Amino acid sequence: MVTYELSDTDVDRIFQALADATRRDIVSRTLTDELSVTALAGRYDMSFAAVQKHVAVLERATLVVKRRRGREQMVQANPEAVRRAARLLDAYEKIWHDRAERIGDLLSDTTKGTEQ
Amino acid sequence: MTVISTNKDVDNLTFTIVAEFDAGPEAVWQVWENPRLLERWRGPPTWPATFEKLEFAPGGDARYYMSGPDGEKARGWWKIVSMDAPRRFAFDDGFAGDDGKPLDPDDTTRCEVTLAEDGNVTRMTSVTTFRSAEQLEQMVEMGMEEGTIGAMGQIDAVLADVRVGS
């Protein structure tokens, strides 16, 4: 059995956090640059408090880290957590690739069987 | 066999695979309908699936288990929710306890399979919808053994034959 570094709850939090367009946008913007919550709030048509809430959801899911710089709260994405979410779906993709391969083999066996 | 495309949708927790087989839709339908054929591809070689029951009809039930290398059994069940043979069907797939009964009837993944005939090939589209990431992780754990030790020879074959992407 495969073991993951994250608990089930952690994984659930990551997917729930990513299931929102604004939050995905915050993650992608802060992957390259550390941005303040104020700077982020200026980019969306929503209140500072609403953006702060989105950042808090991302922080609980470990997708971003927050630190204080003077009076500002700075936000930076955690690329490792983003990769973990993608890795799970990659693993599932592999399972289906293998299944399709076995169906293909089975169908060519079945065809050969009928010809004999 | 060619995998035409796969699509992973993190927003909606769905996974889609489109594959083409050099066979008619009736033959591809058989690999789902006939439990002895289904057992030959559903699980990886190290975790083969055994279908104790398969009522391949609308509203039908299936009971199965996957046997692990140390003799452990992971049990599951299906409920066929719709069917239009030999073109499409959908089923819910869930985990079962040692008695074969569903652990939680609402904790299911939905799998929708469509077969389309195109000349000499049949295109199979399978869409799996997960209810949570936790469920996706459990599914991955049940099916991952092959990627580690199982069929290294098969992996070579996959690399040689499969053209990924569209």
Structural overview:
Chain B: Belongs to the AHA1 family. Chain B: Residues 23-159 form the Activator of Hsp90 ATPase homologue 1/2-like C-terminal domain. Chain B: InterPro entries: ASHA1/2-like_C (IPR013538), START-like_dom_sf (IPR023393). Chain A has helices at residues 8-18, 21-32, 37-41, 48-60, 79-115, and strands at residues 35-36, 64-69, 72-77. Chain A has 116 residues and is α+β, with helices and mostly antiparallel strands. Chain A has one domain (8-115): Arc Repressor Mutant, subunit A (Orthogonal Bundle), CATH 1.10.10. In chain A, strand 2 (64-69) and strand 3 form a beta hairpin. The longest helix of chain A has 37 residues, at 79-115. The model of chain A is unreliable at 1-5 (pLDDT under 50). With 166 residues, chain B is α+β, with helices and mostly antiparallel strands. Chain B has one domain (22-145): START domain (Alpha-D-Glucose-1,6-Bisphosphate, Chain A, domain 4, 2-Layer Sandwich). Chain B is 23% helix and 42% strand. Chain B has an 8-stranded antiparallel beta sheet. In chain B, a hairpin with a 6-residue loop joins strand 3 and strand 4. Chain B starts with a strand and ends in a 5-residue tail after the last helix. Mean pLDDT of chain B is 81; it is low at 145-166. Chain A binds chain B through residues 1-2, 4, 8-9, 11-12, 14-16, 18-19, 85-86, 88-108, 110-111, and chain B through 1, 3, 6, 8, 10-13, 15, 17, 19, 21-23, 27-28, 30-31, 37, 40-42, 44, 124, 126, 128, 132-134, 136-137, 139-141, 143-148, 151, 154, 157-158, 161-162.
